[in-house]
Specification:
Blueprint lengths: L1 E4 H6 L1 H11 L3 E5 L2 E6 L2 H25 L6 H40 L7
């Protein structure tokens, strides 16, 4: 833990800034011997904010595990495989329907507009 007096911040800003970036740790600033501020690099601050955003999700995951509400790796793989297969089948069915309609349209045009299509 790095502690500096507020006068240091005013007099040695560049040095303290470099220290924040080099150590990647917060620096505690005191005023009249009491804690006053905490300084850190923007990178460290963003990292902390990202970790804080994940905390509720981690707590929820821990609760789910405690309640037995989870999948084993094999169960998760099987579930994803089935979902993927159903999506592929759905797209295949849509493709077949479109393909059928396109073929029918081409046949209709060939029959009614022979000039446009030469065999």
């Amino acid at each position: 833990m790095i502690i500096k007096a507020s006068a240091s911040l005013r007099n040695k800003y560049t040095e303290i800034s470099k220290m924040c970036h080099d150590t990647n740790e917060p620096i505690f600033i005191t005023k009249n011997g009491e804690g006053d501020l905490v300084l850190m690099s923007i990178e460290k601050y963003e990292q902390l904010m990202d970790e804080l955003k994940l905390l509720p999700e981690l707590i929820n995951a821990e609760k789910q595990i405690a309640n037995g509400d989870y999948y084993t790796l094999d169960q998760a793989k099987e579930k994803m495989k089935k979902k993927l297969e159903s999506k592929v089948a759905e797209k295949s069915e849509t493709y077949n329907v479109w393909s059928y309609h396109i073929k029918r349209s081409i046949e209709w045009f060939r029959k009614n507009y022979r000039v446009l299509f030469r065999n």
